[in-house]
Write a structure and sequence with these properties.
By secondary structure, the chain is mainly α. The radius of gyration is 24 Å and the shape is globular.
């Protein structure tokens, strides 16, 4: 859309942001006031998440230079978010036509009407909703102060007045399928989790496509790191049952398996789902990639998916941050190393995924550019993936045993 001067751009951006934020806050007040609205929100959440994924995909495609054609007016007129964005598009020289004042007026009128209704009914919000929100805010504040992101997430989840979903899959016929059945049922009851995982895979695919366009090894390090981070986030979404087991070890008392065995069984569903989603994406892109590069992409999926899931499993069984870690370490002149160790504690899962991905994908880069025979590159990549996977899965099992032992 071109680049506008800052002086011309900041005012439309501020106005659009104010309208979107005011509309969101007002809608949130209405949801708190009416219990039926809460049920509607949770019922529509999967569809809204899917639409958000599509919009992000359109934005990424447009940023990559693709022409979206008829999708542009559809997005710009799809709702208040599109009406507000037309202000920014017009300021940057985008093609909105002469109808952008109509969109601005619609956004302002909609925000004003919703805000007025929310102001009228705000005094009638039930006391139980206010208590629930106050408890949620207190729990999140305490978790952030202590550096416990998991407690913050649990507080947010507890603050949701979500209806209980009883959907479940048929009971498995074999006891060995109990853990995958349990994980699949949990994902079935939280479809937004799968939507976020698909979004993460989409970002990973774009980053890997960017990396494939560079022949120099030093130019692909950052794109591959971004791809592995996005894939790690996707795997972490699908490993939410494992994270819940790690947060409360009482949930695994029923299991006949050891802590390490149970942790590895949690990886089955996540690995299968990530592999299927990624393989489907490669199949869709195969006509544009060609046979050789499509086969290389399939090998990349097979090689990286288990390693990424294993790294996400390590992160899921990270456990609580030891408070003594903050005050540990030596003083190196510019301060103690405790905060650095604290950051490393949070990041060793993602860093493991990045390191493994860089190693596993290294033999496939010359294959992609026809500088190495496919057989040699594929064998090297799969061999490195097997070694890295064994090491990371062993580490995940060790983390699960240590966490269970410290919580017992």
């Amino acid at each position: 859309y071109g680049v506008a001067r800052i002086g011309r751009l900041w005012l439309p951006m501020v106005v659009a942001a104010i309208l979107v934020v005011a509309l969101g806050l007002s809608a949130g007040a209405l949801v708190e006031r009416f219990d039926s609205a809460t049920s509607i929100v949770f019922l529509c959440s999967p569809a809204v998440g899917a639409v958000a994924v599509v919009l992000v995909g359109i934005a990424v495609a447009r940023a990559a230079g693709a022409r979206i054609g008829w999708l542009q007016p559809v997005v710009l007129w799809s709702g208040p978010w599109g009406w507000c964005s037309q202000l920014v598009v017009q300021a940057t020289g985008g093609a909105t036509g002469v109808r952008w004042p109509v969109a601005a007026a619609l956004a302002a009128i909609t925000t004003l009407c919703v805000a007025t209704v929310a102001f009228v009914v705000a005094s009638d919000i039930p006391a139980r909703a206010l208590r629930r929100r106050a408890a949620t805010a207190a729990a999140i504040s305490a978790a952030v102060f202590l550096g416990e992101t998991r407690d913050a997430r649990v507080g947010i989840r507890a603050g949701r007045n979500a209806p209980i979903k009883r959907r479940r899959l048929p009971m498995p016929v074999r006891a060995s399928l109990a853990v995958p059945w349990r994980d699949s049922t949990a994902l079935l009851r939280a479809p937004a989790t799968t939507a976020w995982a698909v979004l993460g895979l989409g970002i990973a695919g774009v980053a890997l496509h960017t990396a494939a366009g560079h022949q120099s090894a030093r130019h692909v390090i950052i794109p591959i790191a971004v791809a592995m981070l996005a894939a790690y986030a996707a795997g972490a979404q699908l490993l939410e049952p494992a994270r819940l087991d790690a947060d409360d070890v009482r949930r695994i008392r029923w299991s006949p398996y050891g802590s390490a065995g149970l942790a590895r069984r949690h990886a089955v569903v996540a690995t299968i789902m990530l592999t299927l989603f990624a393989a489907l994406a490669v199949a869709v892109a195969a006509p544009w990639l060609g046979t050789s590069r499509a086969l290389t992409a399939v090998v990349a999926v097979i090689a990286t998916t288990p390693v990424v899931v294993a790294a996400a499993l390590v992160g899921a069984y990270r456990g609580r941050v030891p408070l003594e870690l903050i005050f540990s370490g030596a003083d190196v002149g510019f301060g103690p190393t405790g905060p650095v160790l604290l950051v490393a504690w949070y990041l060793y899962g993602p860093l493991t995924a990045i390191a493994a991905g860089e190693v596993v994908l290294a033999p496939l880069r010359p294959v992609w550019h026809h500088d190495l025979t496919p057989v040699a590159g594929f064998i090297s990549s799969l061999t490195l993936a097997a070694c890295a996977g064994l090491i990371v899965y062993w580490w995940a099992g060790k983390r699960a045993r240590d966490l269970n032992r410290s919580s017992s």
